[in-house]
Amino acid sequence: MNVNEIREKSRSVIGPYCKSCMMCNGKACSNKIPGPGAKGTGTVAIKNYDAWQKLEVKMDTIASNNEIDTSFELFGKTFKYPVFAGPVGAVSQHYSDLYNDNSFNEVYVNACAKSGIAAFTGDGLNEEIMIQATRVIKENEGVGVPTIKPWDKETCFEKLKLANESNAFAIAMDIDAAGLPFLQGRIPPAGRKSEAELKEIIDYAKAPFIVKGIMSVEGAQKAINAGAQGIVVSNHGGRVLDGTPATAAVLEEIADKFKGQVKIFVDGGIRSGLDVFKALALGADAVIITRPFVNMIYGAGKEGVEAYVQQLGQELENVMMMTGVSSLKEVSKKNIYK
Fold first, then answer.
1. What's residue 224's pLDDT?
2. Where is the catalytic site (predicted)?
């Protein structure tokens, strides 16, 4: 099955909120939460998608006809593409009970690793989610990124201990999850972290640490001060704060300031290999894609993941070929119109 067939198949099993649209642009689900929609007006997810579409690439086929190399090295591991699958949580609530978080991650981590990329796994109130996610990552030789919510210190350390034991090549925190309702009002308090608190968490991790949820130069600087080796330019798909800009709108400024100091990822509305190329041209080292992977798993399990990764890779390779570049390090602002 191809990606369109898999997406079509997922429609009958994915539940009432996600419509498994031909193009996942945030419009049909809008502000329908639970579900994949965005908070408040529901427009931030739509802005994320639209911002990538406004960028155009420069075609240039007068170039050496070298073999295209899409490989990407991160923290000592080499991946087939500069693409990672993002963390997903509460799948049975947001999509359907065909999967729960544990069965979803079982498929997710393994299929991504076999496809030459890696999955970030989600987190939740049920402690079994992190236990099982880290188990699956360990079984896949550490090819996965356990992603921890900004819980209170004791809970963070308990989950970090599991992450450390998984031999994961990297560990992450989606610090913008402070805006999720189930973290607010918890005793002891969860949510925002000071630089000092974040540093203590990062220092406890035994693998390179990625902070997800950066939307400004100031935020990036604080994450770097705390010891982050990677940052993700992300507004959590618009699910935690209405009225924020698209990730593509802030990526360039952040990358201009910190490229080379820290690995820079970006997510939000990236759907194709063409979008991946545009993100790299704006300064990202790699991208994270989430919602389409859910459709792929609900439609065809591991086969769905493998089909989508293959399509992304082929699209990226074709764009590189048609814009005169042969390796990721050659991609820059000169390859796009803004």
1. 98
2. 236
**Distance, CA of 96 to CA of 311 (rounded, Å):** 25
> 260: phi > 0 → left, psi -120 to 50 → alpha, else beta; which?
left
Domain ranges of the chain: 3-337
Under a CB-based contact definition with an 8 Å cutoff, are residues 162 and 144 in contact? no
Specify the pLDDT at position 291.
Answer: 96
- Burial grade of 76 (CB within 10 A; 0-12, 13-18, 19 or more): exposed
269 is in an annotated binding site: yes
Question: Cis peptide leading into 34, omega within 30 of 0?
Answer: yes
The DSSP code for 76 is T
Count of C-beta atoms within a 10 Å radius of residue 55: 17
pLDDT tens digits along 221-247: 999 999 999 999 999 999 999 999 999
212 among annotated binding-site residues: yes
DSSP H or E segment with residue 306: helix 291-322
The residue from 47, 94, 222, 236 that is catalytic is 236
Check the annotation: does 186 bind a ligand: no
Which superfamily does 3-337 belong to?
Aldolase class I (3.20.20.70)
CA Rg value for the chain: 19
Distance, CA of 238 to CA of 253 (rounded, Å): 20
Which residues does residue 49 pair with via DSSP β-bridges, in sequence order? none
Rounded mean pLDDT of the chain? 97
Indicate if 94 belongs to the active site. Answer: no
Is 328 exposed, middle or buried, given 0-12, 13-18 or 19+ CB atoms closer than 10 A? buried
The model's pTM:
0.97
Mean pLDDT to the nearest integer, 19-44: 94
Q: Is 268 annotated as a binding residue?
A: yes
